[in-house]
Amino acid sequence: MKKLFLLTALLAFFTLVTSQKKCPLPKLLEPCKCTSDDYPVLYVCNNIIDQDALNTAFRNSYDYPLDALSLRYSSLLYLPISLLKTKNISFIAISDSTMASIFDEPPHRQNKLENVILRNISLQRGVDWSLFSSVSPKIIQIEQVAIKRIGLVFTQSIRSSLTQLTLLKTKTASFNEKAFSKLTNLHHFECSYNRIKVLKRSMFSDPSPLNYLDFTQVSFIFFSDCLLLFAMLDIIRYDFFFMF
Fold first, then answer.
1. What is the C-alpha separation between 115 and 42, in angstroms, rounded?
2. Quick one: CA dihedral 81, 87, 90, 93, positive or negative?
3. Coil, strand or helix: which one is 190?
4. Residue 32, C-beta contacts closer than 8 angstroms, at least 6 positions apart
5. At a CB cut-off of 8 Å and minimum separation 6, what does 116 contact?
6. Over the stretch 48-105, which tens digit does the pLDDT of each residue have?
7. 3-state secondary structure of 57
8. β-strands 139-143, 115-119: how paired?
9. Beta-carbon-side half-sphere exposure of residue 111 (alpha carbons within 13 Å)
10. 42, 36 in Cβ contact below 8 A?
């Protein structure tokens, strides 16, 4: 019984020590906070207006793991990739903030960034899709961020790993002729409350794995060659259209 108690105590101590090591000391990470219930390790950074303060926090936590990052109510230049290169971030959410750019350079190829959420943020340089050219996100959700056009840079930069794309209230008015043609795993596409005028079959991969398409509150023209694509969908939402 005593041996069992000793073993249990040692395991508890080991768990405590290892869990503490996942998060740096709170003072080191200021003005951010770290939360970790075994997994994932989440950094929450709110109300930051000093780029140097954020850089210092990441520098102080250089040797600590980071799985998810949440940035809100902040005004910064960018997220410094050079100070995040030891991390393996899979989730980034940025909301209600102003930035010059999301990153100062593309994330490193070994990074497993899978989920990107951008909501109600102002980017002085716009959404630079080339910053994602070295990673393979599966989900990109963007809401209330100005993206007037999905152009050639998007097509060249976003990899076929993408399965879900949301462009909600992004003021998007047009797509490149081959905008999503390389996204052979895209099965969920939402582009609601936007200004899309034309939709063509050539914009999507052939064959296409799409099973959900949402153009709520969008009035657009689609060409008859889209009918076969639409017929394969499980769910399609739209409000008004003309067909040619």
1. 14
2. negative
3. strand
4. 43, 44, 45, 48, 54, 57
5. 92, 93, 132, 137, 139, 140, 141
6. 999 999 999 999 998 899 999 999 999 999 999 888 877 888 999 999 999 999 999 9
7. helix
8. parallel
9. 31
10. yes
The confidence band for 37, taking pLDDT boundaries of 50, 70 and 90, is low
Provide the residue count of the chain.
244
Structure tokens at 26: 């709170």
Q: Which amino acid is at 133?
A: S
Residue 1, class by beta-carbon neighbours within 10 Å (0-12 exposed, 13-18 middle, 19+ buried)?
exposed
What Cα–Cα distance (Å) separates residue 12 from each residue in 3, 22, 76?
14, 16, 40
The 10 Å CB-count burial string (b at 16+, else e) for 67-79 is bbbbbbebebebb
Listed residue (112, 111, 77, 109) closest to 94, CA to CA: 77
Q: Which among 112, 219, 220, 208 has a CA at the least distance from the CA of 165?
A: 208
Distance in angstroms (rounded) separating the CA atoms of residues 52 and 232 = 51
What's the confidence (pLDDT) of residue 74? 98
Cα of 153 vs its chain's centroid, Å: 17
6 burial (CB, 10 Å; 0-12 / 13-18 / 19+) is exposed
Model pTM above 0.90: no
Closest residue by Cα to residue 163 from 127, 114, 101: 114
Q: Which of 64-68, 160-164, 176-180, 217-221 has the lowest mean pLDDT?
A: 217-221
Where is mean pLDDT largest: 33-47, 156-170, 224-238? 156-170
How far apart CA 85 and CA 90 sit, in angstroms, is: 13
